[in-house]
Amino acid sequence: MDFNNNIPIYIQIMNYIKRLIAKGELKNGDKVISVRDMSEKFKVNPNTVQRSYSELERANITFTKRGMGTFVTEDKEIMFNLKNELCKEIINSFLDNMKELGFNKTEIINIISDELERGN
């Protein structure tokens, strides 16, 4: 992962895990990669990864089983809300970028419709 210098690394790791969950690569009850393995994977301090995991647990997205690791929540409503939250972030970012380029609502809708018709 290439980290963005404008966003704290722990938040980027949280977002990475949230996306894995939203895409279904991590499912309800799945074990999340260990703090040590995640820190080695991204070449970051284990304390940074632990902070990400703590924040995910505080948001009830994950839970910890003592001595066994961190697991994805089994609460389907939380999973549904997570996916919708990520969807809204993507849409809002897209709309902000399109407005910055000078497109209005009608133009944006037409562009999206055209792209959907092409099969994208």
UniProtKB/TrEMBL annotation:
- Domain HTH gntR-type residues, every copy: 7-75
Record keyword Ribonucleoprotein present: no
User: Which Pfam family, any one, appears in the UniProt record?
Assistant: GntR
Arranged from A to Z, the UniProt key words for this protein are: DNA-binding, Transcription, Transcription regulation
Transcription regulation as a keyword? yes
Please list the GO terms describing molecular function: DNA binding; DNA-binding transcription factor activity
Q: What is this protein called?
A: GntR family transcriptional regulator
> Which organism encodes this protein?
Senegalia massiliensis
